[in-house]
Specification:
seven-stranded mixed sheet, nucleotidyltransferase, 3-deoxy-manno-octulosonate cytidylyltransferase activity
Length: 241
């Protein structure tokens, strides 16, 4: 089974223009992402999908593979689909270019369920929330799953709502995805769903259309980069490690 990781990397972020090129310990963030996923023995190929020549030049400068895409894509998933269309691969993994702490073991955990289940079409990850403040934070996406580890729902709200104050664990969704290539194109052709619009969470399109998403649990706590201040948090973590 061939696995290709595609890293969508857009230059024009509203809150952090040029984010993929931000310097983290003397290395551009996109290079951290690229090298980390390349370390996985499950991965056959890594490609950066970008709409900007500046990012393309940096990626090719560290001998990475890069594909220049259209600037018109509404989502990162649409961007990776443009790249994946002509690839000979079985599994497409979507890793955002602002996840410099992504690791090889996370990619392996994400892909492993496809080795066990030929019917699986889409997978993602979750991690237990240890900070109580994150439970109510709308910027921390929560996920609940059934007993077979398939998603029931993703939300910015607190789910489950603990009416009876019983002991319950809350899980943060880690926004990396793996798709069977054939399903990826079915998925992007689905119309934008009501729940997706309401929560601004693209993965709800799959659930609302009756598709199952397998969710593996990991212990890793990623620090995504949304604003320039997040760079300091990532550097502190890397120095401590």
């Amino acid at each position: 089974m061939k696995v290709t990781v595609i890293v969508p990397a857009r230059y024009g972020s509203t809150r952090f223009p040029g984010k993929p090129l931000a310097n983290i310990l003397n290395k551009p963030m996109i290079q951290h992402v690229y090298e980390n996923v390349s370390a996985s023995t499950f991965v056959d190929e890594v490609i950066v999908a970008t709409d900007d020549e500046r990012i393309k030049n940096v990626v090719e400068g560290f001998n990475g593979n890069c594909f220049l895409t259209s600037k018109e894509h509404a989502t990162g998933t649409d961007r990776i689909a443009e790249v994946a269309r002509d690839l000979s691969t079985d599994i497409v993994v979507n890793v955002q270019g602002d996840e410099p702490l992504i690791s090889a073991d996370l990619i392996e955990t994400l892909v492993q369920p496809f080795l066990k289940d030929d019917t699986l079409q889409m997978a993602t990850l979750k991690t237990k929330i240890n900070n109580p403040e994150d439970v109510a934070n709308p910027n921390v996406v929560k996920v609940i799953t059934n007993k077979d580890n398939h998603s029931i729902y993703f939300s910015r709200s607190t789910i489950p709502y603990n009416r009876e104050n019983i002991e319950v664990d809350y899980y943060k969704h880690i926004g990396v995805y793996a798709y069977r290539k054939s399903f990826l194109f079915d998925y992007i052709n689905l119309p934008e769903s009501i729940l997706e619009k309401a929560e601004s969470l693209e993965q709800l399109r799959a659930i609302e259309n009756g598709h199952s998403i397998y969710v593996s649990e990991v212990s890793n706590e990623l620090i995504g980069v949304d604003v320039p201040e997040d760079i300091d948090k990532v550097e502190e973590y890397l120095k401590a490690r």
